[in-house]
Specification:
Elements lengths: L4 E4 L9 H5 L4 E3 L6 E3 L6 H13 L5 E4 L7
Antiparallel strand pairs: 1-4, 2-3
The protein binds iron/sulfur cluster.
Length: 73
């Protein structure tokens, strides 16, 4: 089965750090500018729930989950 893919838009990120606090195994903050750093574009299953929660708490909508590509029919 395919894994949903995450993307983080550093242009939209305001460095609030909610994602890194909510899902520290998936997101970090850049030590230089405080903007989001994506640690996994395809989060391991164990971190999917936290990653989804982080998408919900991000105040700027900078992180997005993309539906997995459908498996070959
Ligand atoms: S929660 Fe959103 S705005 Fe805050 S650091 Fe993460 S991506 Fe950026």
């Amino acid at each position: 089965m395919s894994t949903p893919r995450l993307s983080a838009d550093r242009e939209s990120c305001i460095g609030a750090g909610m994602c890194a606090m909510t899902a520290p195994d998936v997101f970090d903050q850049d030590p230089d500018d405080g903007l989001v750093l994506l640690l996994h574009t395809e989060p391991p299953a164990a971190h999917l729930a936290a990653a989804r929660m982080a998408v919900g708490v991000c105040p700027s909508g900078a992180i997005t989950f993309h539906a997995p590509e459908p498996d070959h029919a």
